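S.,

As promised, the zinc ion run. Input:
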Amino acid sequence: MIEPFDDTYFMKKALQEAEAAFEQGEIPVGAVITIDNRVIARGHNLTETLTDVTAHAEMQAITAASNFLGGKYLNKCTLYVTLEPCQMCAGALYWSQISKIVYGARDEARGCINLNTKLHPKTEISGGVLAEEASALMKRFFVEKRNLN
Ligand SMILES: [Zn+2]
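Predicted complex:
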C-alpha cells in the first residue's frame, strides 16, 4: 500500500523528530517543513543540548528550510509540528511568511492561540493531527524525568 501524502503522513515524520529529541533527553517536540509534498527540513527541540532557550524544533526547521531553499521566505511551505507553536516560534513563523502550519497537540498555557500571537495574514493554521500521540510522548517524557530525579 502506498501511503498518501496527507497531514498524518507528515505529522508522523514530525513525531519521529520528537522521538529523537526524547532520546537526547530533550522535551519531545519535533517538526518538519515540506514543499510540494516533499520534506525539505527537519528539526527537534535542542534547548538542553545547545543551552539555548531559542532552540525549539520550529526554529531549527525554519533555519534548515531557508538554508535548503536559499531564501528566507517560506511562503510555499507547510510546517508540521507536534505541539502548537509558542509565541517565539509563531513570531519567527510570521517573519518567514509560511503558507501553512499544522500542529499536533494544543498547548493551552504557552501556545500562540490562547496568547493571541499574531501570525502572518497569509498563514493558515490547523491542528489536532496525531494529537494523542504527541501528548502521550510528552507525558511519558515528564513521567520518566520525574522518576529519575
Ligand atoms: Zn517555540
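Residues 56, 58, 85-86, 88-89 surround zinc ion (CB under 6 Å). Residues 41 and 65 are 5 Å apart (CA to CA).

- D.
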